[in-house]
Each structure stands twice: as C-alpha cells, then as structure tokens.
Design goal:
Layout (H helix, E strand, L loop, with lengths): L5 E4 L5 H10 L9 H11 L2 E7 L6 E9 L4 E8 L8 H15 L5 E3 L9 H6 L16 H15 L5
Parallel strand pairs: 4-5
Antiparallel strand pairs: 1-2, 2-3, 3-4
The structure holds coenzyme A.
C-alpha cells in the first residue's frame, strides 16, 4: 500500500536523522562527508535536500539530494527507510526531485548507481530511467586528496570496511 507522503525541504533539525537514514541504507562512504555534502547543496543556490514523512509531523522515512548545474539535473542519496520499502517512498521522492528540476527549466536528470548496487537499476528503469551509454569519470580538484580517496575506494572495493 503506498504511504501518504509529505515531501519538503530539509531543515537544520532534520540533518542528523537524514544522515542516519543514509547510513542505514548503505549510502555512506568513508571518503564522503554527508554533513558537508548537505551544507554545500543547501548553500549552492541550485540544490535541494528533500525529506519525506508519512505524516506531516512524523519521522523522516525517506530523503534524497537533487540539484542542477544549468544543464542537467542530478539525483543523489535517494533512500527509503529499510522498514518501509515498496510503499512508494522512493517513487515519491524521485517525482518530487523531478518536479523541483522541472520548475527550474531543467529537462533531464542524471544519476549514478554504484557498480555494487545494480539491484536498484530495476527500480529506476521502472520509473523511465535509461543507461546513458557513457562512462562516468571523476577527478578530485586537490591531487593529494584525490590520491587518498582513490586508495580508499580501492580498499572498499576489496571489502575493507574501516
Ligand atoms: C531504491 C529505493 C529508494 C526504492 O525505494 P522504495 O520506497 O522501496 O521504492 P518504491 O516503493 O517507490 O518503488 C517504486 C517501484 O519500483 C519497484 N521497486 C522498488 N524497489 C525495487 C527493487 N529493489 N527492485 C525492483 N523493483 C523495485 C517497486 O515494485 C515499485 O513498483 P510498483 O509499486 O509500481 O510495483 C530503496 O530501495 C532504497 O532506499 N535502497 C537503498 C538505497 C539505494 O540504493 N538508493 C539508490 C542509490 S542510486
């Protein structure tokens, strides 16, 4: 049964609950700082962190981050409470992020799915998302931090969780 869903912008008092949700959903990585990601998104002027509740004043049951770079919209950190999966939270948040982008004249959204998370592809395909047929590359603008992050990613891929 789909939950009634109340989706709105994050406020300061939501931040810890959102980061905890992302942690419980396996979205955090040691090379990313979710508090800093939220801060940058909220102060950028072209990003939003959306939170979903099943009641207007209830606990947070889902969250995501969206934004745009003037060309494409983006979707990050999409999460539905593990106790409330398959009740429309993910779909509702994607729709809210799409509406946020559409309202700003942004016609397309991109998102990244980590290689180890291919199970989620069926969810996105069901919502109309397709493979870009493009490789996705990254580069840290601080070379030293980039080397450190690359080493952390390699260790994580080998199953080292520290
Ligand atoms: C992906 C995620 C947000 C989906 O949230 P959800 O609230 O369970 O999804 P919904 O209930 O809105 O599902 C929407 C549709 O997708 C389908 N669906 C949901 N999860 C699915 C899955 N893992 N595999 C296949 N289909 C799926 C549902 O059946 C539903 O279709 P229907 O209701 O029309 O039958 C949730 O599984 C999650 O938080 N995963 C962990 C974090 C994650 O991997 N995020 C994505 C990072 S790229």
């Amino acid at each position: 049964m789909p939950l009634p869903l109340f989706v709105g912008e994050i406020v300061d008092s939501d931040i810890d609950a959102v980061v905890d949700l992302w942690r419980r959903c396996g979205l955090l990585r040691p090379w990313n700082d979710p508090h800093e990601d939220i801060r940058i998104c909220r102060t950028s002027g072209h990003g939003v962190v959306l939170v979903a509740r099943a009641a207007a004043d209830g606990p947070i049951v889902g969250a995501c981050m969206s934004g745009h770079d003037g060309h494409r919209g983006a979707l990050y950190y999409l999460a539905a409470d593990p106790e409330r999966r398959r009740q429309g939270i993910g779909r509702g948040l994607v729709a809210a992020a799409e509406a946020w982008c559409r309202a700003r004249g942004v016609p397309k959204l991109n998102l990244l799915v980590r290689k180890e998370n291919t199970a989620v592809l069926a969810f996105y395909e069901g919502l109309g998302y397709r493979d870009t047929d493009s490789a996705c590359l990254w580069h840290h603008l601080d070379a030293e931090t980039g080397e450190r992050e690359a080493a952390m990613k390699a260790a994580w891929a080998k199953g080292e969780r520290r």
